[in-house]
Amino acid sequence: MTSQSQGIQQLLQAEKRAKDKLEEAKKRKGKRLKQAKEKAIAEIDCYRLQREKEFRNKQTNVMGSQGNLSAKIEEQTTETIRNLTCSYHKNMESMMKKLLSTICDINPEVHPNFRHAV
What we know:
V-ATPase is a heteromultimeric enzyme made up of two complexes: the ATP-hydrolytic V1 complex and the proton translocation V0 complex. Pfam families: V-ATPase_G. It is built from 1 helix and no strands. The protein has one helix spanning 2-104. It is rod-shaped.
C-alpha cells in the first residue's frame, strides 16, 4: 500500500510540475504576444507619422504650386492690362480723328437709284 501511495504521490507531483510548466509557458506566450503587439503598434505609429509627413509635403507642394500659379496669372493679367492701356493711349488720338472726319465730312450727292421725275 505504501508503494501505491508513493506512486500516487509521485504522479501527483509530476502532474503539479507539468501544470506549473504549462502555466509558465502560457505566461511566456502572453508576454511574447504583448511584446509583439507593442512592437506592432510602434511600427504602425512610425509608418503613420511617415505617411502623414509625406502627405503634408505633397500638400505643401500642391498648394505652393497653386500659389505660384495664382501669382503667375496675376502677373499676366497686370501685363495684359498695361499693354491694353498703352495701346489705348497710343491709338486714341488717331481713332478720334478718323471717327470725327467720317461723321463730320459729308459730301451731299444724289443717290444713283434716284429717278428724275420729268
